[in-house]
Amino acid sequence: MDDxxxxxxxxxxQPACQQCSCCYAARSSWPSLPPPPPRPLLLLRPAGINxxxxxxxxxxxxxxxxxxxxxxxxxxxGLVIHWHGMRQVGTPWADGTASISQCAINPxxxxxYEFVADKPGTFFYHGHFGMQRAAGLYGSLxxxxxxxxxxxxxxxxxxGELNVLLSDWYHENVYAQAxxxxxxxxxxxxxxxxQTILINGRGQYECMLGKVTRYHRGIxxxxxxxxxxxxxxxxxxxxxxxxxxxxxxxxxxSQCAPVxxxxxxxxxxxxxxxxxTTLSALNLQVQGHELTVVEADGNPVEPFKVTDxxxxxxxxxxxxxxxxxxxxxxxxxxxxxxxxxxxxxxxTLPATAVLRYTNSKFQWPGSAPPETPAWDDIDHSKSxxxxxxxxxxxxxxxxxxxxxxxxxTIVMLNTQTLVGGQVKWAINNVSLTxxxxxxxGAYFYGLQDRAFDVAGEAPxxxxxxxxxxxxxxxxxxxxARLSDRVYELPHGALxxxxxxxxxxxxxxxxxTHPWHLHGHDFWVLGYGDGxxxxxxxxxxxxxxxxxxxNTVVVFPHGWTALRFVADNAGAWAFHCxxxxxxxxxxxxxxxxxxxxxRELNVPREAMMCGVISTxxxxxxxxxxxxxxxxxxx
Length: 633
Known about the structure:
By secondary structure, the protein is mostly beta strands. The strands form seven sheets. It has a six-stranded mixed β-sheet with strand order 11-10-13-18-15-16, with no helix packed on it. A six-stranded mixed β-sheet has the order 22-21-26-31-28-29, with no helix packed on it.
């Protein structure tokens, strides 16, 4: 850990409040560096950590061992924290996924996450129990390269780094949202569009910082510019201010204050951008500046220039920005950073922040914020996504193993359907439900047959003749069910997964879904429209320079193919990162290396729930059996 991170940790120390707290430390893996003292980190409310929102930024150095002790003081609910993008090699119990890698931390209990920050990049952490991420449990996790490693683009910026954490915000609490999603038949209630888009936890509601144009009134006919300066009377209402997003931009020391990034002219800055949104796909642009994309999900990519980027929930990027504008009367040295909704008909005004040159004489930009590209311009999204390729000759991003070594292909059909009167998302006709016993613990102690359904694997493949351009109810023989079955993968198997998107319950309606795989990076081999046809499409997959990612999108009525090596023993979630979609069953569980899993030092306290808790008196790890070979190609 560097001094900067240590100082940040101290800055966030506050007296314990009534909800949840934790602290963290890091131990360097290098003997020459002494471990820093423990420092405070987290104190969770449904919308805050250590009384802050978002949570404090954790900064580590690649190779550090990060230790986080979470003390749950929530009175009525459990919690877990997932370290998004950390592969957790050898520590699958620290992945932070309730019912998969661990039990939820009960009220009054504590749990220590300890894991290696295994590579440099832009990451974040968030709650992974119920819909706690939507309630505000998240923060940035930045892993810097060591001097020996360096990053291929580190020499390309001299102005420093700017952290941009994007999210969306709902006024309705997550308990009411979850209850609406679980109601049956005509009582089902979708969560709707967010009230505010947030940049680093700040945003406005019923007004926007910049000038309102016809474009903005097309989103909200009552849109207006927030009250500024001496006329900002709303800021005297401290109660409204502290509830965030309910007053004008000038609320000192409150979440309503505008986000301002002060930059020196003539410098190049690295913007670390990550999205933790509950629902929204977003587009970010910086007025008057080009962006050079250099990193995606912690992996270097071949640099390319754009005027804006699309970013989906679960994704992260680094872009380089050159401050090369000369202030004039019409361009006063202050520029809008505008973040708007993509992929859904927007009902939420774009979020705005200010990029301000230090030689600017003006506090605000002189023009209106730039317009977000049309929400339904899917070709714009595809154009950006398809340009992302692995950095040439990068030792940290090797190409994937060749297709001749492939052991298994899993095709996942993504549909929306009714199960027992409830609206669910299903994968191959199965909507995921999670057992009371964590999968990792069940396999470690050999209790699979008591913990969940082991009568067979989760289904694989699209039914013959299934029309992805028609709703499920119009496909003969389609019937979905609930299940907690898993996919078992031998250790070391080379696996392809094809995500197939299809019609929802409405005809000609299909959405973009960002899928996140825990415990791995994977190679994105390609995208296509319509139904995936292995005989036609397999030979067209990119195995020369596919990017490494941990989150990937599947576009409406299309497919996405990815490849990974199942070399990380554990139980790993693979799911849509849209919070209500996961809540409604859009996910799967991959079990890797069962025999290797039983050689792990799984902490007993992380697994004491479900059938394990009732068998605790005689519990010993299962004896590894003879390792099964990977399936034949």
